[in-house]
């Protein structure tokens, strides 16, 4: 016989979104339950942001040896890499990160239920044989890597996703990466920099979620110097005796292992959304208000990757906070979301900030561009590659967006996000100090270039200084 327990709030999913919601709920009530299936510790810390960055840092450190001879540092060719040791360090630090996320769970053990939750009605949830009712429910069940069923049949550890990549004790010498979105680009470059022979395939023309062709092409050009990559090339897989055959329209290639990075799917299948009295689209998704996180017309809120929108840590955390706040409020409040910002941790780094080029009406903007191939500070560090493009609203001069594949993209994208959120014009940003020699001088070049295309007055102020046209000074 099943037990029925009543509470105020049920949170399904103990990832970043669920934990962010929990913090808000705990401020107001003790009458809550947190239900989680599978491992605790969050996707971010366990198999996502953190372990991927640990792999990238090790790979970049080893790759740096290619610059040594030019700096005058000798015997770089004698360096070697111990991949099992790289993976051991990764897991050691990863486990530390995971432990920090487990603290919030350990403090509320009596309110945590382990098991798969399914909605059985607008206010009821079933876990195993037990039924729980709540005034409000937050679904924060995250997402999982897409893995076509035919590929799932390929055994012997030949098919990897990021769910198991970081658990490997060693890696094989030839790896194909399928998918050139954020995960594909970050991992293909990292694996290649660890000395693995990487061949990467992407179905689309653009890389890393960029929408500006010129920026994507600049990234492609630099990555192609490190590993083989094919865009607009859909790949299929077939198991062979010793490995996996990657089949495209034009070629076949045998590799030892394949990392599949063809997207992530929200964990909503079997969730029972059809038990809510709301309409679902052809993908089974309800209408979720991004400013409230509420499924319109219900007592259910969805936060995090489960929304299938903006699968990025800071957005996921915001959605959790909004959901947590709203389930505890008398009135559901709509929150203004942050300026869009996404960063891919390749070298050169990529970022899309504000409105992506693809979403802008080209008639209403001007584009400023700066190449980093001859930027002074970048050159000093042997990091002189890539491009930044900034988009200004033609009539107001305000910065509306930027895309870049260039050194220090992760930092400059944050400066531009600040400028966009403050609705600054390029002129206003150019009136602020930029030190010398810094990589931001490249950003200044892009802003000056854009501004030149809209300024009509010739009166002088310091925001209008010209470039010296000399590498050492710009
Ligand atoms: C390799 C990789 C690298 C990434 N790098 C970055 C990065 O650098 N920067 C960035 O911003 N973002 C990055 N992300 C994205 C970021 O990690 C995710 O957006 C975020 O972790 C999602 O958090 P979440 O709370 O929505 O889901 P999760 O943390 O996955 O939590 C969902 C929880 O719900 C549980 N669950 C699922 N179904 C049920 C059910 N029916 N009942 C009960 N429990 C259930 C799951 O088991 C899980 O514990 C990366 C992701 C990956 C995979
Ligand atoms: N640095 C970061 O912020 C970061 C890092 C990793 C992941 N993430 C998050 O995780 C999400 C998922 O990342 P992702 O890279 O897996 O997904 P994605 O959807 O961004 O990219 C997957 C790519 O695979 C391609 N593809 C699909 N099938 C293919 C096939 N058969 N052959 C070749 N290409 C194929 C798709 O066209 C697509 O471009 C991202 O959108 C992002 O939100 C963020």
Summed up:
The protein is α/β, with parallel strands linked by helices and 474 residues long. It is built from 14 helices and 22 strands.
Write the layout of secondary structure elements.
Blueprint: E1 4-12, H1 16-26, E2 32-36, H2 43-47, H3 49-63, H4 68-71, H5 83-106, E3 112-114, E4 117-121, E5 124-127, E6 130-139, E7 143-145, H6 149-152, E8 159-160, H7 162-165, E9 174-178, H8 182-193, E10 197-201, H9 213-223, E11 228-230, E12 236-239, E13 244-247, E14 252-255, E15 257-260, E16 264-266, E17 300-302, H10 313-327, E18 341-344, E19 349-354, E20 365-371, H11 376-380, E21 387-393, E22 399-406, H12 409-421, H13 426-430, H14 440-452
Parallel strand pairs: 1-2, 1-6, 2-3, 6-17, 8-15, 9-10, 9-15, 10-11
Antiparallel strand pairs: 4-5, 5-6, 7-16, 12-13, 13-14, 18-19, 19-22, 20-21, 21-22
Helix pairs in contact: 1-10, 3-5, 3-8
The chain binds flavin-adenine dinucleotide (FAD) and nicotinamide-adenine-dinucleotide (NAD).
Nicotinamide-adenine-dinucleotide is lined by residues 178-184, 186, 201-204, 209, 234-235, 261-264, 311-312, 342-345.
Describe the structure.
Its cofactor is FAD. This is Dihydrolipoyl dehydrogenase. Residues 8-317 form the FAD/NAD(P)-binding domain. Belongs to the class-I pyridine nucleotide-disulfide oxidoreductase family. Residues 342-446 form the Pyridine nucleotide-disulphide oxidoreductase dimerisation domain. The protein contains 14 helices and 22 strands. α3 (49-63) runs antiparallel to α5 and α3 packs parallel to α8 (182-193). With 474 residues, the chain is of the alpha/beta class. Helix content is 30%, strand content 23%. The protein starts with a strand and ends in a 22-residue tail after the last helix. The chain folds into three domains: 4-40 and 102-145 and 265-327, FAD/NAD(P)-binding domain, CATH 3.50.50.60; 149-262, FAD/NAD(P)-binding domain (3-Layer(bba) Sandwich), CATH 3.50.50.60; 341-464, FAD/NAD-linked reductase, C-terminal dimerisation domain (Enolase-like, domain 1). Strands 1, 2, 3, 4, 5, 6 and 17 form a seven-stranded mixed sheet that branches. The chain binds flavin-adenine dinucleotide and nicotinamide-adenine-dinucleotide. Flavin-adenine dinucleotide is lined by residues 12-18, 35-38, 42-44, 48-49, 52, 116-117, 140-142, 162, 183, 267, 271, 304-306, 311-314, 316. The site of nicotinamide-adenine-dinucleotide has 25 residues, from α8 and β18.
């Amino acid at each position: 016989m099943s037990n029925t327990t009543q509470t105020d709030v049920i949170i399904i999913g103990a990832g970043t979104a669920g934990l962010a919601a929990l913090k808000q709920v705990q401020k107001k009530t003790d009458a809550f339950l947190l239900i989680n299936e599978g491992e605790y510790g969050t996707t971010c810390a366990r198999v996502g942001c953190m372990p991927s960055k640990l792999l990238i840092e090790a790979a970049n450190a080893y790759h740096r040896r290619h610059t040594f001879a030019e700096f005058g540092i000798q015997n770089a060719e004698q360096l070697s890499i111990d991949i099992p040791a790289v993976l051991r360090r990764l897991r050691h630090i990863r486990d530390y990160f995971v432990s920090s996320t487990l603290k919030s769970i350990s403090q509320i053990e009596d309110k945590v239920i382990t098991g798969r939750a399914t909605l059985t009605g607008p206010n009821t949830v079933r876990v195993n044989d037990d039924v729980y009712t709540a005034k409000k429910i937050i679904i924060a069940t995250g997402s999982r890597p897409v893995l076509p069923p035919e590929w799932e049949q390929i055994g012997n550890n030949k098919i990897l996703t990021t769910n198991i990549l970081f658990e490997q004790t060693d890696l094989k010498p030839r790896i194909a990466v399928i998918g050139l979105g954020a995960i594909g680009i970050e991992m293909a470059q990292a694996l290649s920099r660890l000395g693995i022979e990487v061949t990467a395939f992407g179905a689309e023309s653009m890389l890393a979620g960029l929408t500006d062709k010129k920026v994507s092409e600049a990234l492609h050009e630099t990555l192609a110097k490190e590993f083989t990559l094919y865009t607009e090339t859909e790949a299929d897989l077939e198991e062979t005796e010793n490995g996996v055959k990657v089949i495209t329209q034009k070629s076949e290639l045998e590799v030892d292992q394949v990392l599949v990075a063809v997207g992530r799917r929200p964990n909503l299948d079997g969730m029972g959304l059809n038990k809510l009295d709301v309409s679902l689209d052809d993908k089974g998704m309800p209408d979720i208000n991004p400013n409230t996180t509420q499924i319109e017309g219900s007592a259910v809120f969805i936060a995090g990757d489960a929304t299938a929108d903006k699968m990025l840590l800071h957005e996921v955390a915001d959605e959790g906070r909004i959901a947590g706040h709203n389930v505890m409020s008398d009135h559901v409040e709509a929150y203004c979301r942050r300026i869009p910002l996404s960063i891919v941790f390749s070298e050169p780094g990529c970022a899309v900030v504000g409105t992506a080029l693809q979403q802008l009406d080209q008639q209403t903007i001007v584009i400023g561009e700066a190449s980093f191939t001859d930027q002074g500070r970048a050159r000093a560090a042997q990091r002189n590659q890539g491009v930044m493009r900034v988009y200004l609203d033609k009539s107001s001069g305000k910065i509306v967006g930027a895309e870049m594949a260039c050194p220090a993209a992760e930092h400059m994208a944050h400066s531009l996000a600040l400028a966009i959120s403050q609705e600054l014009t390029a002129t206003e940003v150019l009136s602020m100090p930029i030190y010398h020699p810094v990589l931001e001088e490249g950003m200044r070049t892009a802003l000056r270039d854009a501004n030149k295309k809209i300024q009509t007055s010739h009166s002088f102020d310091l925001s209008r200084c010209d470039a010296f046209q000399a590498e050492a000074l710009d």
